[in-house]
Amino acid sequence: MHEIGMCEGLVELIQQRAGGRRVKAARVRVGARHAVVGDAFDQAFTMAAAGTAAQDAEVELVVTPMTVRCETCGSLSESVDALAVCPVCGGDDVDLSGGEELVLESVTFGEEVPGVSRHPR
């Protein structure tokens, strides 16, 4: 479950930005090539955020598509399926591009966490 490593990194980044404040929500954009499973991502984030300022934060996962260029029929389309085939002809001779990003788009903060410095050293 590669979502665990991904979420551990995201929680670390969120913690750095939190500066002692609680995290109410975060929005993460991930490319389709990462083949992230939404439920697995949610569980991994919950585990990674346990005991941190991001615990109980709502996480919005936005999956961005990759571009599929079919070598058989020449069509160009988008897909969020990591095992994409051409949606026009069903061919599997495709070139895939994009869909590789992993971006923490936004974080919504709440009140300060008691006992946590806003300026960690």
Notes on the protein architecture:
With about 120 residues, the chain is an alpha+beta fold. The protein has one domain: 2-Layer Sandwich (hypothetical protein PF0899 fold). The chain is about 25% helix and about 35% strand. It is built from two helices and six strands; from the N terminus they run H-E-H-E-E-E-E-E. The protein has helices at about 5-20, 40-50; strands spanning about 20-30, 60-65, 65-70, 75-80, 95, 100-110. It has a three-stranded mixed β-sheet with strand order 2-1-6, with helices on one face. A three-stranded antiparallel β-sheet has the order 4-3-5, with no helix packed on it. Helix 1 (about 5-20) packs across helix 2 (about 40-50). The longest helix is centred in the N-terminal third of the chain and has 16 residues, at about 5-20. The radius of gyration is 18 Å and the shape is elongated.
Summarize the structure.
By secondary structure, the protein is an alpha+beta fold. 23% of the residues lie in helices and 35% in strands. It has one domain: hypothetical protein PF0899 fold (2-Layer Sandwich), CATH 3.30.2320.
Strand order of the largest sheet: 2-1-6
* Structural class by sheet pairing and helices: alpha+beta
General form? elongated
Largest sheet, if any? 3 strands, mixed
- Residues in β-strands, percent: 25-35%
Write down how many β-strands occur, each being a DSSP E stretch of 2 or more residues.
6
> Which fold does the CATH topology refer to?
hypothetical protein PF0899 fold
Order of helices and strands: HEHEEEEE
Helix coverage percent: 10-25%
Write the CATH architecture name.
2-Layer Sandwich
Rg over C-alpha atoms, rounded to the nearest angstrom: 18 Å
Roughly what is the average pLDDT, rounded to an integer? 90
Protein name: Hydrogenase maturation factor HypA
Pfam family, one: HypA
Family: Belongs to the HypA/HybF family.
Organism: Nonomuraea helvata
